[in-house]
Amino acid sequence: MPADAPGPFGAMALSFSGGGARAVGFHLGVLAYLDRLALLEDVAVLSTVSGGTFVGTSWALSVKEGVPFARYLADTYRFLGTAPFFDRAIQELTAKNPPLPGARRTLAVSIAKAWDVLYFKGRRFEIFWRPEPVIHLEEITFNATDFKNGISFRFQKSAGRARIGNGKVSITDEQAQRIRMADIMSASSAIPGGVEPLAFPQDFAWPGDDGGVAAREEIQASLREQVKTDTIPLMDGGAYDNQGIDSVLLAEQRRLRRGQSALGLFVICDTRLRTDTFYTMPAPPPPGKITFTHVNRWMWGLIGTAGATVAALIAHFIEDTHRADLVHVVGFVVPMIMALALAGSLLWAREKVLSIIADLSKVVRAPWSRLDRLTTNVAADLVNLRVGSMLALTDDIFMNRIRSLNYAYVFTQPDLKNRIVANEIYDVVTAVDGAEAAGLPGWLTASPAMVEVAKAASTMGTKLWLAAPPPGQHGELDGLLACAHMTTCYNLVRHMAQSCRKPDGTFTDPRLDALWTKAQADWMAMRANPYAFVPSL
Predict the structure, then answer these.
(1) What is the pLDDT of residues 468-491, one digit of tens each?
(2) Cα separations (Å) of 356 from 349, 353, 359, 379?
(3) What pTM value is reported for the model?
(4) How far apart are CA 475 and CA 478, in angstroms?
């Protein structure tokens, strides 16, 4: 392919953020609208994270396999609306045989198996190394997070040379080609707390007549040489860079080293949940009257009762030794087992609590034994506050901070100025009135219907799958697609208005005139009907 894409923006880069099913629907809509503007084949760099990785992997595969975009969109739309994905994942997790021989029986491995069976159909990363056909996607990166080293782990294919892994641990191109696409998808989207880490390479399905043992052991030996361990735990790429920005910047450096021009446009597609409140303090519970002193006494009472029950059963059985029928034996054995199990469970729980208190004493010297004076209501409130605030920290505050740092970097770099579009899912909702004052055309205002659709999409909670729509109505996926269409249109027009004009008011590239006219017509159509370009499938 030519060194630079032929479109009015030049070579483009897309990064798709995480965000669960919300990200899947929005990013699919971004691709659909870029295709509508005939810009999709100008995309030379692709970087994806978590939910965005499904759209990235599926679209990149369709490009490499020569599938027309309209067919890809239709097939993906149907898959997202009908595939029994998590039913299959749970079936794999609970099946008699593990989802992957030799690997842990985990939800992460089961999800990878479900992806492979229902969508990827055994396809492996090697497809992107095939010489034909040559495609416009020169740089492809699917991002996970290396939990051993605390940095990104990149599954990537470059037109030049690119490290697969990171600066501390990496694998060869030959080893990477054996990776199943479903395993890349599962690693990139393994949400901390939601699923388990995916152990690399043990939890990956490797090819070979020996069940992949040789391929796995080859990588394990390489890992031991590099980092003194044979396992790298991989999780959601969003834990390190939820917008996939770093990978695009590295891809541009590789382009420049190959003698190609800089990227003309970098579109950061971000589906961060729009919220003004990351955490709300729950109302304090009533103090309650039952303390752990009471619980401890009741526990000993139950243990004593269980012991007395066992003794009484044994005495009764000895007295009736002349009765050896099955009913008599069962009537003795079953209650005895239940009483012993109750006593054993209570003693085990008590010892576990005492062990935790002993461990706490090693960290902080405090009179932990006095905690038995707390009521159960207060204790439950302490746990609720800790868990809730920790989830807010990891899921929202921490992720928001990472996003802020990434944005602060890219938007303050002089060489990136006027080449970046932040395409955020809530932009239509937060767009200010008086567009002309911001240098935007007066027609670029959202209708109430557009705002309503965008608000519903941008406040949709993070979940792993989209609900099927009611018959004859637009569902969640339709709303996300519509939101992506209007948001992408809005941000491209804003970019053209603010960054693509000469001092005399004309565009820097004459072809932008036709793009502007097309975007204006589309915006007007979406003002009348926000679902104007959502496929009727």
Answers:
(1) 677 777 889 999 999 999 999 999
(2) 11, 5, 5, 15
(3) 0.86
(4) 5
